[in-house]
Amino acid sequence: MSQAIEKKVIGYVKKAQNASKQMVLVSMSVKNAVLKKMARALLANKAYLLRENKKDLKAAASQNYPSALVDRLVLNDKRIAGMSECLLDTAKIKDPVGTVIKKFKNADDLNIEKVRTPIGVVGIIYESRPNVTSDCIGLCLKSGNAVVLKGGKEAIYSNKAIFKICQDVLKKSKIPVDAIQLIDSTDRAATSTLLKQDNYVDVIVPRGGEGLINYVVGHSRIPVIKHAAGICHTYVSNKADLKKAKDICINAKIQRPGVCNAMETLLVHKAVAKKFLPSVCDVLIDAGVELRGDQKTRAIIKGVKPAKASDWDTEYLDMILSIKVVENTNEAIAHINDHGSAHSDAIVTKDKKEGDLFLSAVHSACVYVNASTRFTDGYAFGFGAEVGISTDKLHARGPMALEELTTYKYAVRGVGQIRK
Amino acid sequence: MSQAIEKKVIGYVKKAQNASKQMVLVSMSVKNAVLKKMARALLANKAYLLRENKKDLKAAASQNYPSALVDRLVLNDKRIAGMSECLLDTAKIKDPVGTVIKKFKNADDLNIEKVRTPIGVVGIIYESRPNVTSDCIGLCLKSGNAVVLKGGKEAIYSNKAIFKICQDVLKKSKIPVDAIQLIDSTDRAATSTLLKQDNYVDVIVPRGGEGLINYVVGHSRIPVIKHAAGICHTYVSNKADLKKAKDICINAKIQRPGVCNAMETLLVHKAVAKKFLPSVCDVLIDAGVELRGDQKTRAIIKGVKPAKASDWDTEYLDMILSIKVVENTNEAIAHINDHGSAHSDAIVTKDKKEGDLFLSAVHSACVYVNASTRFTDGYAFGFGAEVGISTDKLHARGPMALEELTTYKYAVRGVGQIRK
């Protein structure tokens, strides 16, 4: 059984690598036309998609999955339209392949160009959201890569249906059909085999919870770009515009609490805590947010639960917020660097110098002055669709979109130069 | 024993991470002054360095190491001067930290800057060359990183001496002394412990032979940037200037055969093979190069050994060359993409279109038209000193110098924007 899975997975990645070698030669107009056809095909096959999705939902119901997971699993008219739009958006974005990043002459008069090229074969390992299947097919093809997809077992019927629709489009196109591969085995052995194929797969992008990320990091021979937790902070300085601070905090916490760029911890300067906390906490409590605070917070706001040490290191992804009153900006920065996940953190302040200090001293992928951390994503940054938000430091940090799906080569033109 | 080593290594990486947090705040002038002092200190302590190096050489003699390894191990006046100069060169290069890579506004009018920042803690695992110790200390400090060094056991006395000299300079400086760490244990357990410290170390750069690289890739939880083999090709087209082709091939093979950017395989178009091969092979044979060829080559040049299938996949790092006569440019490109290591490959041609095709179709880090592959290094590219030549595709490809020792963050300035 396990050996059969191994053979199958190795077959997939070999095909993907062969296809990736031809992908470099596919023109931008062909790629865009294919993405648009896929977008239309998803809408045209809505009934089929909903039917297959129901099988996943039925299985989920019998498994007693948490409701947040089941919610991510659901396909409906709006979500299918969203998947279709994502492909259309990706078709519209400029292809980064071929872009000259820089151009220079060396001391020997060689003309050196640093040029963007596709990475090759991208492996994506993800959990319950079926839209990742079509989003990543679009992004990887557009950037000239082949893609090997391994979705969660809870979404297997939905993923297979989306994949089949995209594959049928490829069959009638000039893009090699093998450029997209879906590992349809739900066995762990499939993942562990995939992670060993460093001769065929160039990068693995795991999107998901701690367990998945941890497993991938511990077992992969292939370079990994993690898409892990967001423990995001907002720090309200004593120099903040408190009206703006309130809007920003409420937005960062409750506009969409289940995503990685939502605020999990609020830090407030002690000089404004008594004025600021009551007004913002009223709104949060009314919205149903559970507050957990340090002693100083609890002295100001009645009914706040005591925060445990572990609260400062927790990604709730839920209607829960931890609150701490700090002595000064340095304490806020130190708290963020110690307890955050280097994802997205914000300061609210009218003092430019303080804002600049925060921007340089906080070691996170995205650091904000006077804005909600919710802006950390490829779409909001203007990059179009995204593979996700990288929480790693190498190659791709923060929103990972088309440009981050490329690498580069040096193209060197000489007139016979030799090394002295 | 093993537990004591584990504790020690964890102590080193924790200290390095703490120091790295302070490194961001060290000014460029302080960093440059420290590098210059280290350069002077290496020269001033030459006698001490030579004495310690002798201990390594004595141990090597008793171990029957291969002569190439022993050669790499030797310190002498010239090499110590070279190490000193490398630090001075690194002091001269512009610090990439703080550079704005790009600057843009998003649809919500947020001002977004993509800014270079240090990576954090860089782990370097290397083999016998002691100069790597001071080269990497210079590069990592200059780019605002802390560095954890793990050299080969065959160079332990030399590495400890170089490290001590650099550490003594740091003790009298404003750079935290913990920013450089040398793992002085020669036990494998030290390396395996280091590779598990993904909470403290941000990247591992292994420089060395296949065994080392393979071990690191198989055991690291930390992102790895490999510095592995170079199976480099030169292809002489039927449209080549054969005089230039001869100079380029001789340079690529014999100017320094033991390095990763030296030519290992020569490909020649069948239409020029009879004219080209005799003249170039004369020089190579006179220089002592052993030739291994396919049947067509052996029909032209007497005394060429038959190349085995494995020859096309071998990095000789020695005075050996494999030669193959090809039907056309496409066969040459396919051979390079199949058998090369995507390091450095060259075409010699007068035809611009053919050159451009080669540049785009060969999937290597550095692709050359009419120049020797020997130019692939940080110094020759004008990047100053280098950590090495990355054979990976992510983050750093080809020469890995100061810029590649940085990552980036997004610094976002708003006026109270929230996500709709």
Outline the structure in words.
2 copies of one chain form a homodimer. Chain A is an alpha/beta fold. Chain A folds into 2 domains: 2-227 and 387-412, 3-Layer(aba) Sandwich (Aldehyde Dehydrogenase, Chain A, domain 1), CATH 3.40.605; 232-380, Aldehyde Dehydrogenase, Chain A, domain 2, CATH 3.40.309.10. Chain A is 45% helix and 20% strand. In chain A, helix 6 links the parallel strand 3 and strand 4 (146-150). The mean pLDDT of chain A is 95. Chains A and B meet through helix 10, helix 14, strand 13 and strand 16 of A and helix 10, helix 14, strand 13 and strand 16 of B.
Give keywords:
420 residues; homodimer; seven-stranded parallel sheet; alpha/beta; Aldehyde Dehydrogenase, Chain A, domain 2
Short synopsis of the structure:
Two copies of one chain form a homodimer. Chain A has about 425 residues and is of the alpha/beta class.
Spatial shape of chain A: globular
| Unreliable stretches covering 5 or more consecutive residues of chain A | none
Give the strand line-up of the largest sheet of chain A: 10-9-11-8-7-12-13
CATH class of the largest domain in chain A: Alpha Beta
- And the CATH topology of the largest domain in chain A? Aldehyde Dehydrogenase, Chain A, domain 1
- Please give the number of β-strands of chain A: 16
* Multimeric organization: homodimer
